[in-house]
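Quick one:
INPUT:
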């Protein structure tokens, strides 16, 4: 395990993206527990991409314009749905008043889909992980698994920190309806921007 890999992984995990936005929204709307659940779901969404990179499916995805396009535009459609859902008062940023909770399965499911429907993640792992495997490595496949698990653990910790920070300022948000309205619009705009970025992404 090299310091270069750890630093690169930290930078990638900490870079604002769909998972970060969703985890922040969970922390603001439902508190620290929900943000940790969301961080866990986003981390689970990495697993299929890691498996695709290890088995070589990412190469097929990279070579097939149709497969890449289908997954990409499904991801764009889902991000636009998340933007619309965030704007609604009973949507993703609905403040939990202690009487009603969004189900754990729903939070995890939404978080998984956010990462799952991003074909660039598979290609990222396909190009990223082999750089940190020595040519003389006896079991390169297992080494990729090790590196992938470490990346996932780092992602979970970073996302959980983002979410817990959001939860820590939740009271101030609840006490100011105007701030909550502004946040809804900001998060919705972020999902739209990320959807547009994904739509413009090339293989």
């Amino acid at each position: 395990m090299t310091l270069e890999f750890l630093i690169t992984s930290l930078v990638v995990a900490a870079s604002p993206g769909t998972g970060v936005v969703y985890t922040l929204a969970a922390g603001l709307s439902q508190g620290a527990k929900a943000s940790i659940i969301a961080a866990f779901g986003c981390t689970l969404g990495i697993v299929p991409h890691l498996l695709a990179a290890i088995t070589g499916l990412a190469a097929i995805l990279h070579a097939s314009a149709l497969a890449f396009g289908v997954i990409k535009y499904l991801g764009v459609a889902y991000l636009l749905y998340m933007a619309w859902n965030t704007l609604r008062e009973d949507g993703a940023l609905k403040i939990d008043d202690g009487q009603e909770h969004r189900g754990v399965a729903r939070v995890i499911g939404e978080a998984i889909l956010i990462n799952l429907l991003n074909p660039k993640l598979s290609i990222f792992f396909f190009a990223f992980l082999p750089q940190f495997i020595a040519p003389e490595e006896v079991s390169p496949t297992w080494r990729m698994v090790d590196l992938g698990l470490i990346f996932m653990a780092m992602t979970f910790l970073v996302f959980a920190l983002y979410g817990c920070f959001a939860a820590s300022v939740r009271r101030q948000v609840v006490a100011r309806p105007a701030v909550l309205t502004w946040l809804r619009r900001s998060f919705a705009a972020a999902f739209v921007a990320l959807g547009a970025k994904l739509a413009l992404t090339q293989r």
